[in-house]
Automatic annotation (TrEMBL):
Keyword Signal listed: yes
Signal peptide feature range: 1-23
Protein name from the UniProt record: Iron(III) transport system substrate-binding protein
GO molecular function terms listed in the Swiss-Prot or TrEMBL record: thiamine binding; thiamine pyrophosphate binding
Top-rank lineage group of the source organism: Bacteria
One GO CC term, this protein: outer membrane-bounded periplasmic space
Entry keyword set: Signal
Length: 335
């Protein structure tokens, strides 16, 4: 007998695996990428063979809007892999029911809600993606901080994700504002803006433009830098001394679910050794204690202790500030 994992709506993905008759079925909303979903769900259904997991994959913003729109008649049993900044919206957070998944008590407090409404098995983080060949060709110093990017020698050599349209851009900006304070944080961004050649709508594009030799520094995603090194590009990931911005990918049980026990089985699986091993294929930031980045990430410049370089971000405050920060950004840097 064959089972298919369904990506409903905007994105459809299917696979067939031999399973016994289903005892349970759940619908999960997620913002994870499709290749991740396929890997995680196939492994989870193999580990829980009487559970069928139907998945709707949407972008972070679209997913948040759908959850809010469906608040009066929720269709999902579970939220999974959604940016915590979006999840902190009370219109979404209030739809989640407390449940302490197996293994969640071992997570650092930054990776779980004190009321157990969510926990984050994974996340993603920002970095300066530096083309070492172009850096040497231009005679530029290796930057170690946002302050280093003020150097007039970098004028026209930096490309950055725009925080008004890119979650990656936003995590960089909010990290700087929370670490330096708003006054100095904005002042620092203004000083670096003088050297920015372009702001992009994509979080990965700055690193991809840098690795192709168009620019020297891309304020971008760490995973893209690691993938670029693995593919042979002359790239190094530099994590700013002020602290690296990051986002968490939350999982939570929907209050309105009619399949709560089945959801709990899947949530318990998310922190198993098997799941954690799979995360290492796609993630640099993994919440489980004792995990280290893949060798390709370390080769790119990611430290073994990723936690040590993370900025001190107040996520509830970050969620509240989004509209204000984006408005201020447009006023200061809109081009």
């Amino acid at each position: 007998m064959k089972n298919s994992v369904k990506l409903l709506g905007a994105s459809v993905l299917s696979m067939a695996v031999a399973l016994p008759a289903f005892a349970g079925e759940i619908t999960v909303y997620t913002a994870y990428e499709e290749d991740e979903i396929a890997s995680y769900v196939a492994a989870a259904e193999k580990a829980i063979p009487d559970l069928k997991i139907n998945v709707l994959r949407l972008s972070t913003g679209t997913l948040a809007a759908r959850l809010i729109a469906e608040a009066g008649n929720p269709q999902a049993d579970m939220l999974w892999g959604q940016a915590i900044t979006a999840t902190m919206d009370p219109q979404i957070l209030d739809q989640l029911e407390p449940y302490e998944a197996e293994g969640a008590d071992a997570l650092d407090e930054r990776y779980r809600d004190p009321e157990n409404r969510w926990f984050a098995p994974t996340g993603y983080m920002g970095t300066f993606c530096v083309n070492t060949a172009r850096l040497e060709q231009k005679g530029l110093p290796m930057p170690a901080s946002w302050k280093d990017l003020e150097d007039p020698a970098f004028k026209g050599e930096i490309i950055m994700a725009n925080p008004t349209s890119s979650g990656t851009g936003y995590l960089h900006v909010i990290a700087l504002l929370h670490e330096l304070g708003e006054e100095e944080g904005w002042a620092q961004l203004e000083r670096v803006d003088a050297n920015i050649a372009q702001y992009t709508s994509s979080g990965s594009k700055p690193c991809k433009s840098v690795r192709s030799g168009e620019y020297t520094v891309g304020i971008s995603l760490a995973i893209t830098a690691a993938q670029s090194v693995e593919q042979g590009y002359p790239v190094k990931a530099v994590f700013p001394e002020e602290g690296s911005g990051y986002e968490l990918e939350a999982a939570g049980l929907m209050k309105a679910s009619d399949n709560k026990e089945d959801v709990k089985r899947f949530m318990d699986w998310l922190l198993t050794d098997e799941a954690i091993a799979l995360y290492e294929d796609y993630k640099i930031l993994i919440a489980a204690p004792g995990t280290t980045p893949a060798q390709s990430a370390i080769d790119a410049g990611v430290p073994e202790d990723v936690q040590s370089i993370l900025a001190d971000i107040d996520f509830p405050k970050s969620a509240e500030q989004q509209d204000e920060v984006k408005t201020t950004w447009k006023e200061k840097f809109g081009r």
